[in-house]
Specification:
The protein is of the alpha/beta class. The protein has helices spanning 38-45, 105-110, 113-125, 142-153, 166-171, 188-199, 211-219, 242-248, 261-277, 293-299; strands at residues 2-6, 13-16, 26-36, 57-58, 62-66, 72-76, 88-92, 97-98, 133-137, 158-163, 179-182, 202-207, 221-229, 251-254, 285-289, 306-310. 31% of the residues lie in helices and 27% in strands. Strand 15, helix 10 and strand 16 (306-310) form a beta-alpha-beta unit. Helix 3 packs across helix 9.
């Protein structure tokens, strides 16, 4: 079969690779769409804790396609060396999630890693209650834009998006953002005041940035504010005053979908796909031929929509 094969750490090449064979508990999926995620790039670099120990291997942690019995499915964590960026992948049966009618494969793939990082921090990490105010830090990318829509559908009282690109910030309003805050060259205190004014005080903070941006958002929090930590684009370290935590009763929680178990992941994914199939959320992606994987690899860090590789 043809696949995006990683023969050395860096960028995979479009070339031939042996095809997978089904086994007990493992199914071969005919891949229709495979997303290109930041974690795929990190894994391929060799510096990630999930980087392969043995090469060659096929890149890709998730995708969507068709099982041997005709089921349309989303899958994640294919069995090495058969990643998702190929004509076929080998996947544990328990990790397959059937897709609703009317949802195309590219959208289904996009709603996996990105969708779960948007919805589950709100529902499982932040325990959002309808009417509460949500602040999304770094909310102009693929995941953040899905989080804006998820917060709206979950009944957030306000949805404030914080970021650096003012045009991208403005575009989140059509997705459900009620206010935006541009980081600019504001000090922590100035950013705190801007977030507090825009949001009427944060109850749940979805944090894709960390660093001083997260500190400012915490300072703009209401009593019992919950910050869910997902990414660290603005810095890997942050100092939080103990008095701030105590005075607000604030909590900071690290997030990964796996912490909540496969049942929660599958139910959250089904919620996302049902919303998408009903036209309640916009899933923004661009399909790219798998043969152009090297070009997609280079473009991915600069795009604000998901690149989806199609065999």
């Amino acid at each position: 079969m043809r696949a995006a094969v990683l023969s050395e750490f860096g960028v995979p090449r479009y070339t031939d690779h042996e095809s997978p064979v089904p086994a007990e508990g493992l199914e071969v999926i005919d891949v229709a769409a495979a997303t290109l995620n930041a974690v795929d790039i990190a894994i391929a670099s060799g510096a990630h804790y999930l980087s392969p120990k043995n090469l060659p291997t096929v890149s890709g942690i998730e995708g969507a396609g068709t099982a041997a019995d005709g089921r349309r499915v989303y899958f994640s964590l294919p069995v090495s060396p058969y990643g998702s960026m190929a004509e076929q992948a080998l996947v544990p049966t328990g990790l397959l999630i059937e897709l609703p009618d009317g949802l195309d494969f590219a959208a289904a793939a996009t709603l996996g890693n990105a969708g779960l990082a948007a919805l589950m921090p709100l529902t499982h990490g932040g325990r959002l209650v309808a009417g509460e105010n949500v602040v999304i830090l770094g909310g102009t990318g693929v995941v953040g834009r899905l989080a804006v829509q998820a917060a709206r559908l979950l009944g957030a009282g306000s949805v404030t998006v914080v970021g650096r690109d003012e045009a991208a910030l403005e575009s989140t309003r059509e997705l459900g953002a009620t206010a935006t805050v541009a980081i600019g060259d504001r000090s922590v205190d100035e950013l705190r005041d801007a977030i507090r004014q825009a949001s009427s005080g944060a109850d749940v903070i979805i944090d894709y940035t960390w660093g001083t941006v997260a500190l400012a958002a915490l300072q703009a929090g209401n009593r019992l504010v919950r910050l869910v930590q997902i990414g660290d684009r603005a810095g890997a370290e942050m100092t939080v005053p103990a008095q701030l935590m105590r005075s607000l009763g604030a909590s900071v929680q690290g997030f990964m979908p796996i912490h909540y178990g496969p049942g929660a992941v599958q139910q959250s994914y089904r919620t996302l796909t049902e919303w998408a199939a009903a036209g309640e959320i916009a899933v923004q992606y661009e399909t790219v031929p798998l043969a152009e994987v090297a070009d997609a690899w280079e473009r991915a860090p600069r795009t604000r929509h998901k690149l989806v590789l199609v065999p």
